[in-house]
Amino acid sequence: MRSRFSAFAVGDEAYLLVTWHPATRPERIGFEDGTRWTRLEIVRTEGGGPDDDRGLVEFRAHYLTGTEPGEMHEVSRFARHDGAWVYVRGKVS
Fold it and tell me: Superkingdom of this entry's organism (predicted)?
């Protein structure tokens, strides 16, 4: 999760696509112009350990659009695919 947040922060589309499950991966990432991601706050996790095949991460991602602060709250689902953890989908609230 932290590496994907960092990839969003620097606009690394290639990394985001590689770490996205092929069944749910979009063709492109829609980065928002003028948004600067500033901080990631992990709220909770479930699973995701060495013996798990699935995991959940609830987080708040803080950002600035111009000088206006904002926050995105999401519960993300991850799964192992070819031995690596990949993002499957998330629910933004």
Answer: Bacteria
